[in-house]
Amino acid sequence: MEEDASLFPKKELLDNVPLVEDERDELEDPEFEVEFLPGEAGNSADSGCLCPEKQHNADADISKKKTAIPDGLQARHLRKTLSHLEKLREEKELFIQKTRGELCACRQRMDLITKQQASVSAEVAAEKEANNTAAVGRLQAVSRRLCTELNNERDLQSKIKALLQKSESSMWHIALRERQLKDGPKSAQEEEVAGRKRLQEQAAKEEEALEKAERNRLLRVRKSIHLQREHGLRHQKLVEDAQKNHKIAVRFLKASLRRIREQERKEERKSRAHMKRRMDAVLALKNSITANRETLRKFQAWGQAKAELAEQKAQAEKEMILAQGGDAFKHLFHQRRCQELDAQKRTFEEEQKLRKQEIVSRILKEEAEEENRKKKQSSPAKATDRLTLRDKTWRCVTDVCEGRGTAVLSCHLRDSGGAAHPKAPQLLEAISSESVQGDPGNTSWEDDTLAEPEVPGLWKEDYKPYQVPKEEVDRKTVGGTKMDKDILARTMEQVRCRATHKQVVSRCKFKGRPFNSKPKLIHFKDFDIGKVYKKKITLINATYTINYCKLVGVEDHLRDFIQIDFDPPGPMSAGMSCEVLVTFKPMINKDLEGNVSFMAQTGGFSVPLKCSTKKCALSLDKELIDFGSYVVGETTSRTITLTNIGGLGTKFKFLPASESYEMDISQSVMKISSVFTDEDKSLYDKIITSISEQQIEGNESSPTDMPSQKESGKRDTKEQEEGRPTEGVTVTTVVTIPPNEEQTEISLGEVTEGEIGPFSSIKVPVIFTPIIPGEVQTKFKVVFKNQQCPTLYFRVVGVAIDVPVWVPKPNVDLKMCMYDRLYQDSVLVHTRSKVALRLKFEVCKELREHMELLPETGYIQAQSSYAVQLKFLPRHSLPEDAGKYFDKESRVLEAPMTIRVADQIKPVGFTVHAVVTTSDLELSPSAVDFGYCTIYEAIRTQVSLYNHSLLPQGFGFVGLPKFVDIQPNDGFGTILPLEMLHLDVIFQPTKAKEYNFELICKSEINRCFKLACRAVGVHPPLELSHYQVKFAATSLYDMSVATLYVINSHMSMNSLTHSVPRIGSEDASPVGPTSFEFLPPPDSPITISPSVGTVWPGKRCLIQVVFRPVLPSKLMHQEASQALTKPVEVKLLRKDTATQRKDLRRQSSTLRLQNQDRLLRTSTTPITQLCEQDFKFSSSECQAAQATRARSFQGKFDKFVVPCVVASGDTKDRKGTEPLSFSPHNTLYLELWCPAVAPSIVVTSNKGKTISNFGDIAVGHHGIKKVSIQNISAEDLAVEFSMLNPNGPFVLLNPTSKLLAGETHVLTLSFSPHESILAQETLDIITKRGTLSLTLLGTGVASMITCSIEGNTLDMGYVIARESVSSSFKLQNCSTLPIKFSLQLDSLSRSKSEDQQRLPQFLASRAQRTEVVGTQNNSGQSVFSVIPVKGIMDPGKAQDFTVTFSPDHESLYFSDRLQIVLFEKKLSHQILLKGAAREHMMFVEGGDPLDVPVESLTVIPTYDPERREGPLSSEAEELKPILVTLDYIQLDTDTPAPPATRELQVGCIRTTQLSPKKTVEFSLDSGTSLQHKGFTIEPSRGSVERGQTKTISISWMPPADFDPDHPLMVSALLQLKGDVKETYKVLFVAQVVTSP
Where do runs of H (alpha helix) occur along 377-405? Predict the structure, then answer.
């Protein structure tokens, strides 16, 4: 009982206790509540919160308090309550009266408003008849106001009624409550007595319950204390283990952190040292650059100061010479020429000194070598009288120093091409080569001797001159004589002629240039000395077949400046090309021209080459300036522009052609030679040379960098020239014209001379101030400081007029004018005359029909003005009438007007200018055919509106029919001049008929232009419920579904009651089933189902449209290719940087850029090749690319129009593939708006793939996959999951309900296949912003194995008792998974003990025998054993098993069952194991069974086993019965049936025991008697080897005297002789049957 009581909680025990509480009803009126709570109820409520242990005492106290309350107190409390209720009732009655009054007033107002509405409606009808629109509108507004007031009053009435009903109900409640309180005191006493009795009974029950609860509480306390103690001990142990592990982990962590910090310190020290070295190197480089810049700046400033000083000096000399009356220019030129010659002389002397030093050093070197040879020679060579090479060299040096070789050197200088500064190394090399390799016999100074030795030791007495060998004497000079050169030229010409041959292909002989050059001319333009320029040309094989190309070279005068880099490409097919790099390094400032010669197989060719220096290319924009006619006293100006398109600037000056002026000629070399001294100039040249060499190195790095380096060189040059202005034109002289009496009428402005830079221009004003009436003409010229620039000339012409009457506006511009429109203007005429003049206004006769001047005659007062009115009304005949005054192409009218003044021969003229244009608007096309259009759609066509006018025009389409709309702006707008506007004409028919109508377009001048239109309205037999579907914003790979209906409303052919489907005015469509087919565009994210269907009349078909946006496959392939090429780029970049570092260590700074270019080419080549390959991407790569692109998706909006073809008839009625009859005019169109947005939830695991493939999972097992999802939106999302198949293999283990912004959640999915299936399900993660679909894939693989045993039975045969025999079989794993197996025998199973409790098998009938475990060994060991018992089979592998049969006694019924269990769960195969054991080596099988297949409980031996080895005796023999039943089947008595046959098997068991008998002999007696009975036995005797069996065939034919009613029974003895003799009694029973 205690345990039962403990099962109930305390709450239930407390709920069973009835609480004593007065029943008080509360009023239901929501406006007030009667708040009344008796003390008994409050006390009882408080008692409900007490604990169970104190419940009894509380109830007892309550009962005592209740009995102690006096009756007077209750009565007083009752009276107080009644008075309160009476007050409430009175207040309620007053409130009800007021409410009823308001209800009556509301009804009265409603009646009044109703009457007013009736009167207003009557007035509206009257005003409508009177067509008073204003009054009708006012009355309708009053009617609407009255309706609104009536509705408000009705609402107020309903509210008042509801309030009144509530008040009345509350009154009734108050009355009922008063009645209850009045009747309450009587029933209270009776209830009190009954309550006391109930409390006493309940108290007794509660005491018992309290005792039980107390006992249960104590038990729970003890149990909780015990559990807490155990939990504390366990927790303490875990804490101690955790502290130990923590100490060990801390120790290892400290050691690891110490090592890591030490490594970080070492790396930090290395990095700091490396950074310090780099910073030092950078600072040193910066300081060096700063010092070099400062030095260069100083030299530049110094050079600029020198140049300014020299210029000042030259200017002073010039002024002095001019003051003396001499030619300053010639003097300065002569002076600078002398300075140049002096500089050249000093340079030559320095070069002579350097050459002399070089010769001396070489002579010293030869002397040392000769002394060494003398020491080695045994006998000194005899001296010869001929001078040695050394003596000749010294003599040459002496002659040069004494001035004898000056003429030769001067000739050399003249032949060198005019080089101003020949380099010393080149001169030394030339002279040394001539002096060393010259022929001694050809020199003119052979016999001269040196007057004074320069180097001591060469002319001693013991010196023996070196004898020149014969080979050296016979050596010829380089280049040979003139005859040798001619012979060499002729030989080379013959070789070239033989090397070329004619090219003939298809009997066509090639003629012309074998190779074409691109570009045709190699032009180095505006070069600077010291820089290197490179150009690349392409040679293209222009012959018919294969040709060769070989570089011959450039001309002799270009070899010092031009270098050709050409790698012969070998045989080149026709059209193939090769590249040639031409490098130009200018050394002289001179134009060069020549050819680059090549040799081809068909002959030689050349490419012209031209090198142009910087030149001035100056021109004027005009040669004549015509000011026109101007009145005397006015001033006007024009500008003339001087442009320099060359690369060299110069100084210019504008002056009249009559004046003469000579400008100074100077060059940069002259300035340098005249300003700098020798030492200063040499230092400056070194600096400039170093800078130019750096530029050359940079230029040689790559030809592609030439433009940038040229720009940088220009910027550097500009930075170096600090004192020069940066603009292209610099004005240095301001010419002011002094006022004098002979001031010309045409003069130049203030700026007349200055400096114009390269590629710039300057504007010079020319001022015309007419003084004397008449024509004025002046010629000017522009002279330049550069003598190569020719003088430019231009003329200035002007006319000065002086008339008394003039028009201030000689050109009246009416601007744009239209035909047939009137234009007016006022022409003002002024006079300077002091008398009144008569004026006559004339219009040229060609324009008198279009233009007039009013008045034609007038008088102008003295020194005043007169206005004449000009009217212009152009007609369409103006182009023919105006003649020469009107230009038809430009539509410009220039009409000359004449004002004839009295007493004045020369008239005053002015010109009226106007551009006359048309006002035509052209609509193209002139007619529009909308074709066939259904009434459910609109057709839009585009119409062009062209404005032929040169003025903007307003237009508008007016009077449009209801079924036509024109957009934009409803067909109104303004068209600009010569503009073409495209307007959309929208046609939507209202019914099926043929439409012919015109659209009228009016211009703002009320001109009409018509557009003819025609169309055919079609009413299709089907219609759609929606013709436009706007999908919500759908995430990528999400799905949005919209539904619509295809409706067939055609049920009647009566066209009078309703419009019937038809095409135009054709016959109506038949009533019947109508088919449809939607044709969505290919490769669109739209799916329509069903896309084909049939709708019967009056029915509709539901259509589902699915929008599933996906990314295009090209984009996926591009992303996947980028992902594949990125690792390759990183590897190549790393490899290139490593190679680059090695090359930077090995090579100098000059080769760095070349190596970088080479590395860049080698690194980009494999990447480019990789990108050009056609990638074949797997599904995983596409999934990863899809996830990457989905994150960066910005959204997309597509609009699709899906046609729906309609055909009459049912799709089921068509024959084969024959299409239904349909009309294309009945086609319906469905418009779909498809916005796609980026998904709000994405998969972050597994490269963003939404497919989770569990792979192959064995049946009965489970696999786990984890998928990470992330909320990439900016808001928190509530998440829901779709329902997976409850009977399916997939399970979501940890769903979530909310994902915060940016939060990642890991979903755990399980796959547990129950059968061998390929499972696929979709898990939808649903949010308000879209759905993310996860595809779950998995393959349930069944454990498929095959057994090599056929029939699932393994018969071990016969075995000698206490011996064993083994047999093997195989199991093949046919599945794709490794299989865990185990083998179990039923004889060793756990259920064997339960089976032994059942009825023995030999007592049961044959049908009831279900056990497969037969006879077992008496020793208790299993008669069958198998190895191996368990293991794992790999996929596709086989496992061998060995079964051993080991009986320990004789029995024919050994059996067991071998079960193959997979994964310890699934039973795969059951193999029945059978075997028999004999004590002897012979056995007989066959016949009918005569006993049960189960051993008896006891075995009684028939003989003594010890005598088994003894001799055979008749006493030991035992007759064992064998029953053989033969059934002869005779179906027809006429035809004989085959004999009945049976077989007996006689066998000899193979044994390991020693036995004198190796075979078993058998014999069956009574053969003759059996033959008489119809039996045939073959063989009747024989022998059987060990391990063999023999079959005894028994057949029976019924004899003639056989009685079918009595079966035949015959016996015979079968004797077996082996290790013992056994005799079997074979009983033959034969019978005839008529059916099997």
Answer: 389-402
Q: What 3-state DSSP class applies to 280? A: helix
Which H, E and C letters describe 1271-1306, residue by residue?
ECCCCCEECEECCCCCCCCEEECCCCCEECCCCEEE
Burial class (CB in 10 A: 0-12, 13-18, 19+), 132: middle
DSSP classification of residue 14: H
| For the chain, the helix, strand and coil percentages under 3-state DSSP, each to the nearest 5 | 35, 30, 35
How many beta carbons lie within 10 A of that of residue 1060, not counting itself?
A: 19
**1040-1094: per-residue pLDDT in tens?**
899 999 999 888 877 766 778 888 888 888 888 899 999 999 888 999 999 899 9
Question: Length of the chain in residues, anyone?
Answer: 1636
Longest dimension (CA), the chain: 193
Burial classification of residue 1495, based on how many CB atoms lie within 10 Å of its CB (0-12 exposed, 13-18 middle, 19 or more buried): buried
**Nearest in space to 833 (alpha carbons), one of 864, 800, 810:** 864
φ, ψ of residue 1032 in degrees (nearest 5): -70, 165
Q: How many CB atoms lie within 10 A of CB 822?
A: 9
Specify whether the backbone of 1021 is left (phi greater than 0), alpha (psi in -120 to 50) or beta.
alpha
Residues 6 or more apart in contact with residue 70 via CB below 8 angstroms: none
Which residues, 6 or more positions from 118, have their beta carbon under 8 angstroms from its beta carbon?
Answer: none
| String of DSSP letters for 1184-1232 | HHHHHHHHT---EEEEEEEEEEEEES-GGGS-TTPPPPB-GGG-EEEEE
SS (H, E, C) 53-65: HHHHHHHHHHHHH
Q: And the tokens for 392?
A: 């000749």
The string of DSSP codes covering 183-221 is HHHHHHHHHHHHHHHHHHHHHHHHHHHHHHHHHHHHHHH
To 10 degrees, the CA torsion angle through 1268, 1274, 1276, 1278? -70
Provide CB contacts within 8 A for 520, sequence distance 6+.
Answer: 607, 608
Do 1190 and 1115 form a contact (C-beta atoms < 8 A)? no
Is residue 1518's pLDDT more than 80?
Answer: no
Q: Between vectors from CA 254 to CA 253 and to CA 255, what angle results, nearest 5°?
A: 90
Tokens found for residue 1465: 């769960």
Distance from C-alpha of 120 to C-alpha of 143, rounded to nearest angstrom = 6
Torsion angle, alpha carbons of 1586, 1588, 1593, 1594, to 10: 50
Residue 64 Cα to chain centre, angstroms: 90
Alpha-carbon span 612 to 584, nearest angstrom: 12
DSSP string, 1506-1517: GGGGS---GGG-
pLDDT band at 26, cuts 50/70/90? very low
C-alpha triplet 586, 592, 593: angle, nearest 5°:
135
Residues β-bridged to residue 985: 941, 966
* Residues 1441, 159: Cα–Cα separation, whole Å: 96
Q: Which amino acid is at 7?
A: L
Residue 44 contacts residue 62 (beta carbons within 8 Å):
yes
Strand arrangement, sheet containing 636-644: 618-620, 636-644, 760-768, 746-748
* Burial group, residue 1330, by CB count within 10 angstroms (0-12, 13-18, 19+): buried
| Site of tokens 């107390």 | 214
Transcribe 662-719 into DSSP letters: ------HHHHHHHHS-HHHHHHHHHHHHHHHHHHHHHHHH-GGGHHHHHHHHHHHHHH
pLDDT per position as a tens digit, 512-571: 788 889 898 998 888 888 889 999 999 998 888 888 888 888 888 888 889 899 888 888
Element (H, E) at 1442: strand 1438-1445
CA distance 149 to 145: 6
